[in-house]
Specification:
By secondary structure, the chain is mainly alpha-helical. It is 69% helix and 3% strand. The protein has two domains: 11-74, Arc Repressor Mutant, subunit A (Orthogonal Bundle), CATH 1.10.10.10; 85-232, GntR ligand-binding domain-like (Four Helix Bundle (Hemerythrin (Met), subunit A), Up-down Bundle). The chain has eleven helices and two strands. α4 packs parallel to α8. It is elongated and about 70 Å long.
């Protein structure tokens, strides 16, 4: 047997690989900030220059973007460096929002399916916290648009498919303002209870590992919101 020379692996390369793995595993969503340099250096047990070099490697790879005063932010895998063409399309042609809702029905019903199969205990704990927040807001007559978005992103994360996560996050970004408007409007009607019960049914199906039930519950929910959304386009 002929052995080959062993090449030493730079510390910065090891750090970059671990952070890349975390991003691609869905531990960070698009637009999430990475921990500050000093925290990463402490966590990895290395110097800050090594962390800085690792982050620069990730910047060059297009996975993150560094802001001088805003830290390092995870980039979307499906949006361009100049922004989101989809968000611009929706801004110019508002009726395209219904196209986005239609696409969400197809994507998110299957993310719910796989979330039921793959969700980890930590995923379920985060979803339960959001559902509890929605329940409290319902009792107090408050809106839950932020909880609503968080829940759908958590379901996408629980599918442990980074492409789905980034795609769904991009879709949310394209219709963020519109979705908030619809959510606030519904919250002022008895249908607010319907929204809450739909989210709870999705969560309970995922909790019970009922993949088909989770998919059907998500589809029912998005069909409902699509019908309500059409009144605001």
């Amino acid at each position: 047997m002929q052995f080959q020379p062993v090449k030493p692996i730079k510390v910065s390369a090891q750090i970059a690989k671990r952070i890349r793995t975390a991003i691609l595993a869905g531990e960070f969503s698009p637009n999430d900030k990475l921990p500050p340099e000093r925290e990463l250096a402490k966590a990895f047990g290395v110097s800050r220059p090594s962390v800085r070099e690792a982050l620069q490697t990730l910047v060059c790879a297009g996975l993150v973007v560094s802001h001088p005063e805003g830290g390092t932010v995870v980039r979307s895998l499906v949006e361009t460096t100049t922004g989101s063409p989809l968000a611009e399309l929706v801004r110019l042609e508002r009726e395209r929002l219904l196209d986005v809702v239609e696409v969400r029905k197809g994507l998110e019903s299957w993310t719910a399916f796989y979330a039921a199969e793959r969700a980890l205990p930590e995923d379920l704990r985060k979803m339960e916290w959001v559902i509890t927040g929605m329940e409290n807001n319902l009792e107090n007559g408050e809106t839950s648009e932020s909880f609503d978005v968080s829940f759908h992103v958590l379901v996408a994360k629980a599918s442990h498919n980074v492409v789905w996560l980034h795609t769904i996050q991009s879709l949310f970004n394209s219709m963020k303002q519109f979705q908030q408007t619809v959510c606030r409007a519904i919250s002022m009607t008895p249908e607010n209870k319907v929204l809450y019960s739909q989210h709870r049914r999705i969560f309970e199906s995922i909790l019970k590992r009922d993949a088909v039930g989770a998919r059907e519950a998500m589809l029912e929910h998005l069909t409902f919101t699509g019908q309500r959304s059409s009144a605001y386009v």
